[in-house]
């Protein structure tokens, strides 16, 4: 994955530079690049876009034809560039890096919260308030449920992980016992 991220980085940075200067705003570009990433991540689309027998123009027409919304001309040009350079399947990594650049620009970060149980909006907001003090940035929560955690939460902000799950505590206890 690190290799794909390295290849995707210049595309994400170029896209972000274009988006910053567009009156449509970063949110519109973010929505568009996320839709493109979701589409390119579909198995059938990946197979079609990887077909060496399809011409570049055909790939572009098929791909853009599958979108729910119409794209601005700069975004269409971006898709054309990705197809021309055989990089269309990097869209998920490009979208991820675009969001990271947008968050950095906004002074925010994404907090990926994984909980053993469904959390209420009040619980999420209380957790985010505490985490914002710890990390020193405004956080955007993305909450998922994973029953295998048994209890507690695991929070990932950038490359930092705060794991208070029962599963993690049991793993630490197992490692401690195995070391003796």
From TrEMBL:
Primary site of residence: membrane
Highest taxon of the lineage: Bacteria
Record membrane topology: Peripheral membrane protein
InterPro entries, alphabetized: ATP_synth_OSCP/delta_N_sf, ATPase_OSCP/dsu
GO MF term set: hydrolase activity; proton-transporting ATP synthase activity, rotational mechanism
Keywords: ATP synthesis, Cell inner membrane, Cell membrane, CF(1), Hydrogen ion transport, Hydrolase, Ion transport, Membrane, Transport
Subcellular localization, as worded in the UniProt entry: Cell inner membrane; Membrane
Name of a matching Pfam family: OSCP
Cellular component terms (Gene Ontology): plasma membrane; proton-transporting ATP synthase complex
Signal peptide: none
Oligomeric and partner information: F-type ATPases have 2 components, F(1) - the catalytic core - and F(0) - the membrane proton channel. F(1) has five subunits: alpha(3), beta(3), gamma(1), delta(1), epsilon(1). F(0) has three main subunits: a(1), b(2) and c(10-14). The alpha and beta chains form an alternating ring which encloses part of the gamma chain. F(1) is attached to F(0) by a central stalk formed by the gamma and epsilon chains, while a peripheral stalk is formed by the delta and b chains.
Annotated function: This protein is part of the stalk that links CF(0) to CF(1). It either transmits conformational changes from CF(0) to CF(1) or is implicated in proton conduction.
Family: Belongs to the ATPase delta chain family.
Protein name: ATP synthase subunit delta
Name of encoding gene: atpH
């Amino acid at each position: 994955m690190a290799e794909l991220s390295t290849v995707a980085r210049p595309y994400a940075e170029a896209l972000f530079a274009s988006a910053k200067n567009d009156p449509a705003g970063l949110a519109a570009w973010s929505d568009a690049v996320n839709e493109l990433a979701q589409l390119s991540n579909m198995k059938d689309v990946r197979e079609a876009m990887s077909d060496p027998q399809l011409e570049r123009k055909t790939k572009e027409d098929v791909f853009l034809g599958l979108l729910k919304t119409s794209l601005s001309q700069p975004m269409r040009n971006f898709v054309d560039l990705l197809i021309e350079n055989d990089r269309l399947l990097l869209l998920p990594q490009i979208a991820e890096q675009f969001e990271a650049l947008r968050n950095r620009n906004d002074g925010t970060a994404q907090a990926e919260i994984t909980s053993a149980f469904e959390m209420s909006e009040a619980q999420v907001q209380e957790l985010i308030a505490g985490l914002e003090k710890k990390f020193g940035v405004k956080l955007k929560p993305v909450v998922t449920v994973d029953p295998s955690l048994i209890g507690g939460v695991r929070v990932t902000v950038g490359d930092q992980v705060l794991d208070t799950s029962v599963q993690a505590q049991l793993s630490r206890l197992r490692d401690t016992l195995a070391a003796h």
